[in-house]
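Researcher: We plan to redesign the surface later, but first we want a full-length starting point. Tokens attached.
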């Protein structure tokens, strides 16, 4: 069984936000202070998430990504990793983290069955790291990446949000860092998902600009033919054979026509798109009843959400309406 929307796109990739809380404060995601987080009893339990994933797998979901906020601030997160890794039909399990707590938890996560990591890191410069995140944790993040490499996680990728007039000096150093460690750096175009309405098209460093910087600073790049056209990143390799980079160009080169992703928020809402305005309340169904009939109702809700999915975000149209929740309460 597959989850196919009205545009013929099949959906096998579920992103699971396990918390809206975070231990850093990236300015393009949340304000420094005064953030209202979800009350704990509104957050799905690991058992509820596991039940939802088991149902989603019967509809063809195969790939899972654990996100936040920052997933590693969720207590006993390795327990959830263990539960999800044990579900028959799950072929791929990954986690996106800001890396601050990763070093201390890496072995436990690895033992629980996690292998794939994306570490969110925009700069290797301590002052700019503090400026972006309002925390002085760069050293911890870099140390965590080394620990994760030593333990054997792989692939490890770096996600860097490329904000214009701020992160230009980091584009080339990050790629060099990746080349030295066989880590793919993914540059993400700044998207209108922040909670303070800071986004502006003029603050988006686009893929073509970053490619020009990388070719100028390191060397020629060659596009790698799509292994999976539904994957959000376009990947390139340096022609000298050392290292690769990726671009998630949601603004300048939207990839919605191949989208295979749905998202579950930490408070149990199903979103067919990162920018969706409407959501489906799965928590109410999960907390309603148990048993096969109830599972079938949840299956219907998932199908219904996918069936109502739009063709894609409208960032580049005058109709664009920012989603009613910011990035930290949706998850990457
Ligand atoms: S913006 Fe929405 S439809 Fe487009 S790729 Fe992202 S999640 Fe899919």
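Model: Full-length starting sequence:
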């Amino acid at each position: 069984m597959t989850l196919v929307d009205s545009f013929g796109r099949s959906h096998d990739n579920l992103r699971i936000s396990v918390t809206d809380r975070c231990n850093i404060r990236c300015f393009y995601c949340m304000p420094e202070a005064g953030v209202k987080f979800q009350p704990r009893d509104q957050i799905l339990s690991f058992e509820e998430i596991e039940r939802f994933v088991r149902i989603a797998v019967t509809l063809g979901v195969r790939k899972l990504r654990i996100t936040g906020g920052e997933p590693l601030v969720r207590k006993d997160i390795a327990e959830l990793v263990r539960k999800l890794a044990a579900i028959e039909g799950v072929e791929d399990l990954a986690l996106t983290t800001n890396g601050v707590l990763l070093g201390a938890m890496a072995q436990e996560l690895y033992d629980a069955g996690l292998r794939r990591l994306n570490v969110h890191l925009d700069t290797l410069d301590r002052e700019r790291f503090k400026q972006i995140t309002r925390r002085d944790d760069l050293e911890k993040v870099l140390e965590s990446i080394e620990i994760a490499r030593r333990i054997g996680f792989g692939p490890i990728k770096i996600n860097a949000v490329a904000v214009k007039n701020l992160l230009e000096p980091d584009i080339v150093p990050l790629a060099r860092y990746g080349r030295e460690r066989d880590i793919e750096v993914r540059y993400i175009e700044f998207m209108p998902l922040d909670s303070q309405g800071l986004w502006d098209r003029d603050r988006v460093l686009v893929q073509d600009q970053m490619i020009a910087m990388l070719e100028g600073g390191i060397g020629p790049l060659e596009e790698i033919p799509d292994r999976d056209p539904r994957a959000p990143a376009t990947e390139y390799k340096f022609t000298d054979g050392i290292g690769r980079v990726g671009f998630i160009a949601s603004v300048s080169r939207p990839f919605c026509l191949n989208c295979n992703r749905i998202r579950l928020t930490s408070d149990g809402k199903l979103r067919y798109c990162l920018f969706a305005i409407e959501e489906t309340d799965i928590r109410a169904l999960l907390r309603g009843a148990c048993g096969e009939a109830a599972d079938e109702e949840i299956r219907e809700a998932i199908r219904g959400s996918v069936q109502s999915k739009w063709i894609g975000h409208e960032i580049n149209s005058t109709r664009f309406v920012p989603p009613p929740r910011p990035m930290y309460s949706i998850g990457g």
